[in-house]
């Protein structure tokens, strides 16, 4: 059973939308599949996600529909891989691994006369990978990762405490810092067998955050409170396991399993922290140690499995099923879903042997979740229920072998 031609032409799971609506802030899935392609290779991809996430507020707030609070977004990916010689390879991968984009408009509990609750978090990452192939079957690789982070947060309404955090704004300045990745891959090209395990380190950022509280706090701080302070944000470590194998002529099965260490992730800006431990706030929250702006209670696990088939030298297609555990429930109001199930289809067209176009679509059933403010984290209290939500992801990729 000769399946060698499937190794680059068929694995449509690489259409860049696998992690489009993953747990916590996870987005791209941080794939290194482009680096594991044979020979010299380049690709560029784009993913678009259109989500519908809504719920209803709960007591003690007046019960009211939240409306759709999930903004549509897109993120690009790009990669260049060079096979320097039989033993050494070099790769450069670009993606936007983490992010958030949400807004509550005209919603009881999440808005005031002066504004809406919203959050935008953006990251971008550049990975330089050096590979060593001692034999045709083995590939050991490692390299540095440069990552940038920036964002904006605005909290409004009674959900965040009328006397403490409603009216809080934070502008997270752009910061870049370094981490690393390492892994190993094993392949048997004649049967389209490939397996890889990749670890990515956490990356620590020390960021200038401009903060302000625009409502009357009523706790002795005065009105307004504002300042510029240093805040540490550490993006999480992760592990990706990727598998594929030929199962019959012109047909392969593939799987991806991903773990992300969200349980140890949190954001607590400088002024936010100072207010959260003030006696006037502690009297309300009963948390003398303060609390985080964003935090998660569990690590994320996700899996994507499917089958791809080559119909001719020009055409191939795949089907897949995906699952994501979420990062705990209750969860932050700024991303109120608990994981998902999805189904996807993809197609590939190769006009010539040296280049191809991939396209795919996935439908996500988003997990029901109870949304809580930062002050409620670690308790069973919550301010809104989110049920019956969904999303659609679209992916497009161009690949070139040279």
Low-confidence stretches: 1-16
Q: Which outline best applies? A: globular
Overall number of strands: 24
- Count up the helices: 4
Structure, explained:
- With 402 residues, this protein is mainly β.
- 6% of the residues lie in helices and 55% in strands.
- It contains four helices and 24 strands.
- The chain has helices at residues 6-9, 161-165, 270-276, 279-285, and strands at residues 41-52, 55-57, 73-83, 88-95, 99-104, 111-112, 115-132, 138-155, 168-188, 193-200, 203-213, 225-235, 238-248, 251-260, 266-267, 294-295, 300-310, 315-324, 331-332, 340-352, 355-366, 369-372, 384-386, 389-401.
- The strands form three sheets. A 14-stranded antiparallel beta barrel has the order 1-3-4-7-8-9-10-13-14-17-18-20-21-24. Strands 2-23-22-19 form a four-stranded mixed sheet, with no helix packed on it. It has a two-stranded antiparallel ribbon with strand order 15-16.
- Strand 17 and strand 18 (315-324) form a beta hairpin.
- The longest helix is centred in the last third of the chain and has 7 residues, at 270-276.
- The chain starts with 5 loop residues before the first helix and ends with a strand.
What is the topology?
Layout: H1 6-9, E1 41-52, E2 55-57, E3 73-83, E4 88-95, E5 99-104, E6 111-112, E7 115-132, E8 138-155, H2 161-165, E9 168-188, E10 193-200, E11 203-213, E12 225-235, E13 238-248, E14 251-260, E15 266-267, H3 270-276, H4 279-285, E16 294-295, E17 300-310, E18 315-324, E19 331-332, E20 340-352, E21 355-366, E22 369-372, E23 384-386, E24 389-401
Parallel strand pairs: 19-22
Antiparallel strand pairs: 1-3, 1-24, 2-23, 3-4, 4-7, 5-7, 6-7, 7-8, 8-9, 9-10, 9-11, 10-13, 11-12, 13-14, 14-17, 15-16, 17-18, 18-20, 20-21, 21-24, 22-23
């Amino acid at each position: 059973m000769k399946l060698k031609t499937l190794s680059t032409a068929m694995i449509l799971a690489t259409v860049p939308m696998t992690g489009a609506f993953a747990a916590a802030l996870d987005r791209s899935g941080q794939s290194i599949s482009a680096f594991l392609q044979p020979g010299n290779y380049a690709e560029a991809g784009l993913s678009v996600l259109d989500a519908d996430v809504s719920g209803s507020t709960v007591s003690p707030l007046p019960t009211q529909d939240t409306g759709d609070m999930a903004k549509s977004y897109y993120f690009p990916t790009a990669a260049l891989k060079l096979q320097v010689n039989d033993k050494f390879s070099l790769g450069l991968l670009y993606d936007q691994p983490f992010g958030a984009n949400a807004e509550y408009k005209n919603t009881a509990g999440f808005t005031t006369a002066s504004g809406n609750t919203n959050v935008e978090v953006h990251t971008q990452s550049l990975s330089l990978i050096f590979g060593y192939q001692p034999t045709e079957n083995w590939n050991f690789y490692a390299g540095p990762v440069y990552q940038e982070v920036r964002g904006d947060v605005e909290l409004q309404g009674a959900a965040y405490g009328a006397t403490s955090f409603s009216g809080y704004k934070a502008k997270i300045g752009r910061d870049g810092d370094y981490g690393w990745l390492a892994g190993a891959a094993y392949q048997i090209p004649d049967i389209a067998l490939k397996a890889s395990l990749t670890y990515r380190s956490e990356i620590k950022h020390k960021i200038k955050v401009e903060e302000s509280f625009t409502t009357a706090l009523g706790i002795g701080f005065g009105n307004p409170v504002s300042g510029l302070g240093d805040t540490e944000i550490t993006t999480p470590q992760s592990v990706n396991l990727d598998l594929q194998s030929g199962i019959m002529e012109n047909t392969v099965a593939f799987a991806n399993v991903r773990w992300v260490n969200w349980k140890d992730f949190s954001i607590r800006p400088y002024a936010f922290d100072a207010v959260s431990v003030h006696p006037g706030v502690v009297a309300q929250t009963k948390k003398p140690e303060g609390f985080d702006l964003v935090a998660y209670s569990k690590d994320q696990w996700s899996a994507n499995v499917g089958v791809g088939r080559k119909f001719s030298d020009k055409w191939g297609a795949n089907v897949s099923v995906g699952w994501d555990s979420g990062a705990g429930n209750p969860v932050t109001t700024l991303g109120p879903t608990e994981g998902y199930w999805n189904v996807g289809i993809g197609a590939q067209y190769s006009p010539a042997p040296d280049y191809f176009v991939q396209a795919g679509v996935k439908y996500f059933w988003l997990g029901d979740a109870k949304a809580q403010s930062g002050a409620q984290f670690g308790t069973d209290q919550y301010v809104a229920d989110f049920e019956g939500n969904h999303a659609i992801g679209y992916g497009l990729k161009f690949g070139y072998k040279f």
